[in-house]
Amino acid sequence: MGGSGNLPIGPGVWGFIALFVLAVALWLLVRNMNSRLRRMAYREHERREAERAAEGEQDDTDSGPKPTEQG
Q1: Contact yes or no for 60/66 (Cβ under 8 A)
Q2: CA 20 to 30 Å from 4, out of 17, 32, 49, 53?
Q3: Which parts of the chain have pLDDT scores under 70?
Q4: How many CB atoms lie within 10 A of CB 34?
């Protein structure tokens, strides 16, 4: 017939390299996203604490001295 024999059919070395590069890029993107989300959550927590402190200062000046807690 054609005499084609056993030809290697598949992605080969270049397919492996391309997949490896994509996997490394994905890992770097996920790592960067996690650090940004962590930083954003930390800033949000700080902002809320600052708002609570500001509200607490306003409440303290409006209502006078508060009794101390015994524990």
Answers
A1: yes
A2: 17
A3: 1-4, 60-71
A4: 10
Torsion of CA 26, 28, 30, 31, to 10 degrees: 160
The per-residue pLDDT for 3 is: 61
Question: How many whole angstroms separate alpha carbon 42 and alpha carbon 15?
Answer: 41
Structure tokens at 17: 């390299």
Q: What sign for the dihedral angle of Cα 11, 12, 14, 20? A: positive
pLDDT number for residue 69: 63
3-state SS, the chain, equals CCCCCCCCCCCHHHHHHHHHHHHHHHHHHHHHHHHHHHHHHHHHHHHHHHHHHHHHHHHHHHHCCCCCCCC
Q: What is the pLDDT of residue 68?
A: 66
